[in-house]
Specification:
There is one protein chain. The protein is 34% helix and 22% strand. It has one domain: 2-Layer Sandwich (Hypothetical Cytosolic Protein, Chain: A). The relative contact order is 0.18. It has three helices and five strands. With 95 residues, it is of the alpha+beta class. It has a three-stranded antiparallel sheet with strand order 4-3-5. It has a two-stranded antiparallel sheet with strand order 1-2. The structure holds zinc ion. Zinc ion binds next to loops.
Amino acid sequence: MVMAKLKHLPQRTCIACRTVKNKRDLIRIVRTPDQVVIVDPTGKANGRGVYLCTEAECLEKGLRKGRLAQALKVTLSDETVAQLFNSVQNELSKT
Ligand SMILES: [Zn+2]
């Protein structure tokens, strides 16, 4: 008997809506060991990461300063949050 090969896809939770999705369907934001918060399109950067759906609603909710700062346990400036939002939009426009 041949067993069906079920590829295990890593799953992560969106910090905005709490929906569990395949990791590749989410966008990762990571706080690097240098305390810099960046968008991580590869999903492989070191650091504490959070995930967001690619839908506008979740991005807006999840990229609010307070929410993101809490999730990443870091202090964020308005400027950083704005930059992150732009980076995310930029990444999403590539696909
Ligand atoms: Zn979501």
